[in-house]
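Deviations from the work plan: none for this task. Representative record:
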Amino acid sequence: MAWRDSRASRRKLLLFSSSIIIGIAALVAISSFGQNLRNTIDQQAKTLLGADLVVAARDPFTPPMEELFREIGGQQSREVIFSSMVVFPKTGGTRLVQVRAVEPGFPYYGQFETQPTAAAGEFHSGSALVEDTLLLQFDSKPGDPVKIGQATFAIAGALLKVPGENAVFSTIAPRIYIPFDKLDATQLLANDSFARYKVFFKLPASTEVERLVRRIRPKVDKLGLTVDTVEERKASLGRALENLNHFLSLGGFIALLLGAIGIASAIHVHVRQKTASVAVLRCLGCSVAQSFAIYLLQAAALGLVGAIAGCALGLAIQYTLPQVAADFLPMRVEVAVAWAPILRATAAGFAVCLIFAVIPLLGIRRIAPLAVLRASYEPAAPLRDPAHWFILILAVAGLLWFARYQAGRWTYALSFAGALAGAFAILTLFAQGLRRLARAIISPAWPFAWRQGMANLYRPQNRTLLLLLSLGLGVFLMLTLFRTSQILSAGLLPKDKADQPNAALFDVQADQVEKVKQILAEQKLPVLADVPLVTMRLHSIKGKPVRALLRDPDRHIPRWALRREYRSTYRDTVDSSEELVQGSWPAKSRVAGIIPVSAEEGIARDLKIGLGDEVVFDLQGIMLTNRVASIRRVDWKRVQPNFFFVFPTGALEDAPGFHIITTRAETREKSAAMQKAVVRALPNVSIIDMALVLDTIDALVHKVSFVFRFMALFTVATGLIVLVASVLTGRYQRIQESILLRTLGASREQVRRILIAEYLLLGVLAALTGMILAEAGAWALARYVFDAEFHFAILPMFFALVIVSGATILTGLLANRGVLDKPPLEILRSAT
Amino acid sequence: MYRSGEGELTVLKNVSFSLEAGGACAIVGPSGSGKTTLLGLCAGLDVPSSGSVRLNGADLSRLNEDDRAKVRAENVGFVFQSFQLLSTLTALENVMVPLELRGMNSKGIREAAVSLLGKVGLGERLQHYPAQLSGGEQQRVALARAFLNSPKILFADEPTGNLDNETSERIVDLLFELNNSSGTALVLVTHNLELARKAGRIIQLKGGLLVEDVEVEPALP
């Protein structure tokens, strides 16, 4: 009976079942991809680290450390990592890169991917592996020279991939590998304090690495070393990738939800159209349960078709996901069909669809046989129906559970569900408001087509709410993502203002300051600031030694804040990027006695210190006892050296340190010329070029927003399908209307204009709703999450408006194709 | 001539008649005799494969669909068996459609529509949608719509076919009353001979041929 009853509307209903295809496809693809990721991580775990164990230090290894390494045993490969300027003599280009001097052996697992392949082994004989992007940027190729410090290397090949590191990393700091034994030739490490020293261990297969780490932990902590194992790396990577996966899943979830709303609306219309049939069935003795079962079966079949089609599409999509996430993955993911998660996702999608279909289906139970006699018979209100409430609660609980399953955590699921419910509520309110507004402002003075099109928005059986929800939400997501990435690239970045520095020269030794100033003068560039810098470590806070604090699990102070190297400066004034919020600026001081210092707001919070608290710094063996005399707020976004701790003048002048000198070059060419001159004369000086920082952040934002957009695409595609399906289900009514209007004397053009007016209004309203929500969302994100400046952007809004309303009109007209060609004579035939 | 299934089907042959302005006639005949086809041709909803149809001086057979639509908008009113109201418009809006299609949007239309609906007894139901009206009420809305643009000719296709006797009578009374008061010609297609007699002239079709065209004594009440 269910099959026979669906005969007339089968095609229409199938169309609607397509609205959940995209959502289910997205979920299937993402969960299968997630499983593939987990499998790949398990299979290639050791290549994540390239070794069984890595031990790292911030200072050259000391004899006790060497003793520890001997104790650990196994095969060892050492690496020193530091930042330095490099010169490509062929073009004269210079750039700040990360130099890694490594001994043969590493990676013990996995391999360097290079072009040519042989370069991965050959560079140990005295050449350099240079990041692919650097070669492109400086127009160099294997065989060309690259100068690092005082040494010049031949380029062995392009570095494409390092085991365990992702492509985003190389965007931030392009890498150059040189042989370990050529490190001294660069003469860069002599006075550089920012290097990291690592030992990679390959241990015998019988070694239990975790147990070994537990055993050496006390010594490691005492020596100030850090260790990294495959298990730790796997766990942290696993967490990061799970987050990525959850994040992508939520995009699929939104699409599925929209599709489910589409289905619910189709079933709602279907039930309305079937009221007479149901009433006849009831008259003929069909029970409430039987009539309900007929339509439930239809809905289930509908959901199943959508779920199966979605599953098939998802299997195809999953092959694209490794490309989408490629830049964020430290390994190549083998795509295989992971049946368990695929079936789970399909089943969950099917369940969501079914629950949404049951809500309108409940109305079937309320159709009384009396409806046969009176067409205008209204079924009882759903609010009195306990089953209605039961299903609603079931739906909300099911959705929450599903969101929890996709998001991984209850807090995420609840905030996601809350945000989504908020967006839905706002969109619904908006749609209602717009319908009211349409009704209120519609004026008899308007042309007929416009009035007719606008009135169609609030007339019986209108789809305004459904379309505003699906299209509006799509526009909202897309535009929020776009605007946020815009704000990130513009608002978060340091502003390039004419009076502010756009290049910083650091690692300038005290005896090199004059030389740097001379070079800048020759280049006709100003010295905007010359800031002395002294590096020190925390020794104790409020009398408690840092070492003891590190062992205390209840300390509530982040580990990095205790262990980091503090680069502090000394001066007698507050800088323009700072604001004194508490206390007074420290007076001139001497090394002996207690030195008053100024602490930055954030670090003071992290270290749990306030005005008057005592902090002891270890300055290469000399203990400096300090008292917090003031708290500063710092604008970190300015391109200029900013500090956690500022000392008064008089205390640190004789301490070993170096300088940072800032300048401003009006053009990229001037900046390049300056960098070339500085690096040639003083190879140890590194230069941060703001243009480069901007490019880097831009590239990062671009990569991240690509993933976002990919996700939003599911939503938009679903919105369009819901639009097409809804237009097509309303097609019969449209044809009737069009024929009648033409019988009454309307020209084809008039009917077309009515259609255009209606879809134009729908598109404009959906775009407007989405735009307003997106601007609000972008504003909230800018204000509360990114702490960035927010500006209204008219252009993206204009484009969204044009594109969305254009697409809506086009879809509406295409889906209504043929409606205008029905001859008006059909009206007489349909009447008899 | 119609294409039907495997071959062409000639529905009407050598049918010729004319109707004076303000006159009335009824087209009767068994099912399949060509009544509806004839009505469609007369109203300009279709064009004959041969021969011609002239309406108020315009040769409909030479006009394209949009031009015929214009002729319909200016000269023709319709009443159908199944009412054919736009379900998404209120009673008042349904009545206003024909004049609005002619690009008129003055307040005058609204007033005329309200007054016509008042005349057919629906003054209180202006804002109701068709689904909220009974069959008789819907047909009265259709009548008001048909007369709003003061058509030269009104085509009524089984106007009482879906209504009970009592309601039918009231509708028929209204139909002729409006016909008389506005001088509109009336073409009635019906199975109901009693109704046909009220038109005063009966054209009988059989198998696509005009078999009889007679004046009868109008049995007006």
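The interface with chain A takes residues 36, 39-40, 45-46, 65-66, 69-74, 76, 78, 80-82, 84, 86-89, 93, 97-98, 100-103, 105-107, 110, 129, 131-132, 145, 157-158 of chain B (CB under 8 Å).
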